[in-house]
Amino acid sequence: MLNKVWFALLLIGLLYGFGKAMLGSPPGLEAQTPAATATASADDDSRADQAGVPAKPPSRSEMMTDMGRKLTTAGLDAAKGSVEICIGLIGVMALWLGFMKIAEDAGLVATLAGLLRPLLGWLFPDIPKDHPAGGAIVMNMAANILGLDNAATPLGLKAMQELQTLNLQPDTATNSMAMFLAINTSSITLLPFTIIGYRASMGSADPAAPVLAMICATTCSTIAGVVACRFLQRFYPVPRPPTASDSSDSKKAASTGQEVAR
Amino acid sequence: MNSLFLLMRDRLLDTAHMASQWAVPAIFLVIILVAWNRRVPMYESFVTGAKEGFNISVMIIPYLVAILSVIAVFRASGALDDIKTGLNWMLAFVGLGHHGDKLELLPLVLIRPLSGGGARGVMLDLFSQHGADSFIGYAASVIQGSTETTFYVVTVYFGSVGVRKIRHTLWAGLIADLVGVVAALFFTSLLFRG
After folding, report:
1. Does residue B137 sit at the A interface (CB-CB below 8 Å)?
2. Distance, CA of A247 to CA of A176 (rounded, Å)
3. What average pLDDT score do residues A213-225 get?
4. Contact call for A106 and B38, based on CB within 8 A
């Protein structure tokens, strides 16, 4: 997916730049319209200052030269800048993951998972009590809440495997699976420290300022995910469930479904 | 009456800002207290984790270079500005011209469900264009924090157990993302533009 987006973005950028320099009207004329002035970026302004406002419009070859230089420096500067961002990030990430490692070693994930357990029965009514799926789900949620992405993914995959053992039709998602992923994709991170780290690395004077807004927004999105999942599941019924005696064999289940349909 | 409301709101905003500032120290405190209680060798754990943090930061450099330089070229070509001018015009046409500044966030919202790395690049690009402490910078942070790479998670998780018919999962995830974006804009406006 990203391959295509990446390719398209670069190709469009290069072709658009070429076409604009080749066919577009000189920037001097474009600046007359208010919309263009409003969106003109800072480097355009500085060039305009150098050239002086009433300068004669640049020739076609000058525009081509200009655009080529602009595209080159933009790419190079961004490459240089991204390394600087990462260098700035090293300290913050080391600090955060250091503390998170302490939390992990102290068993905070398991503690948090214990706190989340009462929610299980309500969110996943299809999972029997004390089934390992429940344990894997709360551990994954706890790791996600703490922002331990590396720990969360294996726990999540484990949870999916456990949920699959409860699945009567292995190629179709169950309500519990859909609910689990809806919660997972709504981002339940309590403290998105990597974002704080990026902000600090980009020279923010107040890197932690948006934390409360993040927590509020992510709570809304999680609630919306749960509600949407509950609401939508009745419009996407599981294909005819097999009878209990057939539940171990999905091929048999399909034929049972046909018989019922007849 | 109105001034009382404003006073209440200012107090609330102050408290909210304070709560944000204390989130990190509070988490640190909870972690070390629990670790102390459970006799965890903290210093050693910390160093182990910190090494991981170092590795992650260095490992993402190639990805970030790939994404940020392409975004920069795309922006330098003028394509992004022209698209925004067009969309701005359309917004003004339907009478929503005062939301035109939020269009800057559109690339972030579009790429967020598809690619975590891509969204991170767009967020950093927004930080460098507008400043991390601008409204756009705050809103981008909150959007990034309240949404997920839905397509990626759904693909990986269902792929791992061979489920092909995913029923309503994708819709529920995308609705959660959409609500996350709207809530992000709402809370950012509420907390940072008073």
Report:
1. yes
2. 17
3. 93
4. yes
Work out the minimum CA distance from A243 to partner chain B, whole angstroms.
20
Strand partners, B165: A172
CA dihedral A19, A20, A24, A26 (to 10 degrees): -140
Type of residue numbered A162: E
Residue A150 contacts residue B49 (beta carbons within 8 Å): no
State whether residue A10 is helix, strand or coil.
Answer: helix
Tell me the per-residue pLDDT of A110-127, one tens digit each, with 9 for 90 and over. 888 889 888 888 999 999
The predicted structure's pLDDT at residue B193: 66
The sign of the dihedral angle between the CA atoms of A174, A179, A180, A181 is positive
Contact A211 B177 (CB under 8 A): no
A90-100: b or e for each residue (b if 16 or more CB lie within 10 Å)? Answer: bbbbbbbbbbb
Task: Of A78, A74, A20, A27, give the one whose Cα is nearest residue A50.
Answer: A27
ipTM: 0.86
Domain ranges of chain B: 59-192
Q: Could you tell me the pTM of the whole model?
A: 0.80
Give A149's contacts (C-beta < 8 A, 6+ positions apart). Answer: A143
How far is the C-alpha of A1 from the C-alpha of A193, rounded, in Å? Answer: 27
Q: In terms of C-beta distances under 8 Å and separation of at least 24 residues, what long-range contacts does A253-261 make, across chains too?
A: A253/A168, A253/A169
User: How many CB atoms are closer than 10 A to CB A132?
Assistant: 14
